[in-house]
Amino acid sequence: MKRIKLHWWIILGMSIGAALGTLVHSAYPADIVETTAIYQAFKGISVIFLNLLKMIVIPLVFFSLISGMLGMGTLARLGRIGVRTFLLYITTSLLAIITGLVLVNSIRPGVGLDVAIPVEVVAREVPGSFWDVIANMIPENVVRAAAEFDLFGVIVFALLFGGFMLALEGEKKKTMVSFVEGAFDVMMRMTGFIIALAPVGIAALIARLVSSTGLNVFLDLKWYVVTVFSALGVHLLITLPLLVFLVTRRNPYRFLRAMSPALLTGFSTASSSGTLPITLERAEHGAGISNRVASFVLPLGATINMDGTALYEIVSVLFIAQLHAGIDPSFTLSFGQQLMIVFLGLAVSIGAAGIPHAGLVMMVIILQAVGLPMEYTALIWAVDRVLDMCRTAVNIASDSCITLIVAHTEGQVDESVLWDRSAA
Q: Whole-structure pTM over 0.85, yes or no?
C-alpha cells in the first residue's frame, strides 16, 4: 500500500481543523467560545505543538551550523573557495531579503485586515541604536543566551566553535567531528518526528483560530500569497539570472533549464537536502561543473544558503506585524527592530535545516525577537505547503547559481556540457 505523504496529512489536518473550528464558531456565541472545553482542548494541543517547535530550534541551529562548517574539511580549504562561496551565499540571501522587504512594504498585504487572533501581548525590549543591535549579537553567557532564546548569541558561538574545531588535529578532532555529526543527525531525526506531528498540531491551531474568527479569515490571505509568490519570482527569474550573467557572461536561463530536474524535485519534495543528490548530478552532467567544486559548494549551500526561506520569513513576519498593528495600535516596529528582522532573517536562513517546513520552525525566533505572538503562525500554516515548495525551488536555484559562479572563477566548467542543448 502506498504511503500517504506528509503534505497530504497536513492538508487533511487543516481541513479537519477548519471544519471543527467552524462547528464551534457556529455553536457558541463569540463572547463565550474561548471558555468552552473544546476550545481549551484546541488551545492545549496547539501550545504543546508550538512548544515542541521552540524546543528544537536552538540545538538544531547550533549543530547545523557547525556541521556545515565541518563540511569544509580544513581551515586551509576554508580559504579561497570557502570565503568566496560564503560571501556569495550571504550576498544572494541579502538580495532576497531586500526583494521581500520592498514588495511586502509596497503591497502591504497585512494592512486593513480584520482578523481577531486570540493572542497574548508580549513585552519587548527595543534596541536603542544600531550598535546596540551589533553588541547584543555577542553573548555574555552562551548558556543564558540559549535559555533566553537569543539566536544571535548562539549563532556567534557556534561559528567560533566550528572554526576552532577545524583547527584541531588528530584524535581530538575525529572525536569532536563524530560527536557533532551524531548530534546533528539526532536533531534532524527529532525535527522530522516533530514535523510528523504537524497535522495534529496544525489542526488544533486552525481549529482554535476558526473557532474565534470563522473561516473568512483565510480569504484575506490572497495578497500575502501574491506577495510571497511575486518576491520569489523576482529573485528566481531576475536577480539570480542577472548575477550569473554579470559574473560568467553565460545564458542563465539555459543553465536553469539544465538544473530543472533538481528544481522540480525540490518543488515536489520541499526538501533541499533530500534533493541534493539530484542537484549534484545535474550540476556535473547537466551544467559541466567539476565534481571538486560541486561536491563542496552544493552541500554547504544546502546547509547555509536559504534565499527562498530568508525572503519568505521577512515577508511573513512583516505581514504579521502589519496585521498585528491593525489589532494593537500601540504596536510599532522601530528602525532597530526592522534591522534586527533583516539580520535574523539572514541568520535563521543559514541555520535552517534543509527539510520541509524548517522555515516555520525558524520563524518562531524572529516573532519572539520583535514581540509578535506565535499564534499568528496558524495563518501562515494555512497556505504554507505550496509556499514551502516554491521557496525550496528558489533555495536550490540559488545554490546552483552560486556553484556555477564559483566554478567559473576557478575555471572548473566544462563548456562542452554546459552549452550542449541535449544535456539540458
A: no
Q: Which DSSP letter does residue 385 get?
A: H
CB 360 within 8 A of CB 376: no
- Rg of the chain over Cα atoms, rounded to whole angstroms, equals 22
CA distances from 400 to 89, 167, 244, 346 (A): 11, 29, 10, 19
pLDDT tens digit sequence for 286-338: 889 987 788 778 877 876 788 998 898 889 889 988 888 877 777 777 767 77
Q: Which residues of 156-179 are buried (b: 16+ CB within 10 A; e: fewer)?
A: bbbeebbeebbeeeeeeeeebbee
Residue 248: C-alpha distances to residues 403, 409, 415, 423 (Å) = 11, 8, 12, 19
Burial class of residue 214 in the structure, from the number of CB atoms within 10 Å of its CB (0-12 exposed, 13-18 middle, 19+ buried)? middle
* Residue whose C-alpha is closest to residue 7's, from 418, 421, 389: 389
C-alpha grid cell, residue 141:
553567557
Find out whether 88 and 4 touch, Cβ atoms under 8 Å.
no
Residue 231 has pLDDT above 80, yes or no: yes
DSSP state of 108: -
How far apart CA 64 and CA 306 sit, in angstroms, is 13
Average pLDDT, the chain: 79
Q: Do residues 94 and 346 lie in contact, with contact meaning Cβ atoms separated by under 8 Å?
A: yes
Question: In this predicted model, what pLDDT tens digit does every residue of 150-201 receive, in sequence order?
Answer: 666 777 788 788 888 888 888 888 899 899 889 888 887 887 787 778 788 8
What structural domains and CATH numbers belong to the chain? 6-423 (1.10.3860)
> What average pLDDT does this structure show over 206-228?
79
b/e 180-208 (16+ beta carbons within 10 angstroms → b) = beeebeebbeebeebbeebbbbbbbbbbb
CA torsion, ordered 3, 203, 223, 214, to nearest 10 deg: 140
Half-sphere exposure of 94 toward its Cβ, with a 13 Å CA cutoff? 8
For residue 413, report the phi and psi dihedrals to the nearest 5 degrees. -120, 125
